[in-house]
Amino acid sequence: MTIRSRTARLDDASGELALSLAKLELEAAHGTPNADEQLDFVRDLSRVAVEKQIRPWRLRAAQAAILGLACLAGSAGLPTLWPQAPGEAAPILLGLAVLFLLLAGACLTVYLQRNRREHQWLSRKEAIIQAGRTILDERA
Predict the structure, then answer these.
(1) How far apart are CA 108 and CA 102, in angstroms?
(2) In whole angstroms, what is the distance from residue 29 CA to residue 84 CA?
(3) Pick the residue with more confidence: 14 or 101?
(4) Average pLDDT over the chain, rounded to whole?
(5) CA 132 to CA 140: how far, in whole Å?
(6) Which candidate, 52, 60, 62, 90, has a CA 20 to 30 Å from the CA of 22?
(7) Is the separation of the CB atoms in 90 and 75 below 8 Å?
(8) Is residue 135 packed enough to be buried (19+ CB in 10 Å), middle (13-18) or exposed (0-12)?
């Protein structure tokens, strides 16, 4: 994915990232790319990607874990709190607890993979900038 397409996908209604990218393109067209501004732009782009695409997976994992623990507590306490409960209620709650805890693990795995991939992308772009090249080069 190019810097331009990633910026278009992550930019919000304010267009702040698009304006920063246009400024970087203008500087590159004049032959004076500023490495500090490129680093700031890449870090801002990565920060927005983490907020919009990665952090929600951590929240989903926490929500699924809470639901799993609630089902586990319900299955453990159901016979004492509600003696007239149907006999299948506790095993159903236990099955739901296992399902939610597996879902929490899957969400956490997705979060960790995407977070690692984002850090690798940021490191590659920072290395390109520090090597003296521009991030606007599509081959970079």
Answers:
(1) 10
(2) 77
(3) 101
(4) 90
(5) 12
(6) 52
(7) yes
(8) buried
The single-letter code of the amino acid at 15 is G
Which amino acid, 38?
Q
Residue 127 has pLDDT above 80, yes or no: yes
What tokens does 119 get?
């850090």
Of residues 34 and 118, the one with the higher pLDDT is: 118
Other Cβ atoms less than 10 A from the Cβ of 79: the count is 12
Spatial separation of the C-alpha atoms in residues 69 and 126, rounded to whole Å: 41
What tokens appear for 8 in the block? 């278009």
Higher-scoring residue by pLDDT: 78, 23: 23
Q: Residue 18 and residue 39: Cα distance in Å, rounded?
A: 15
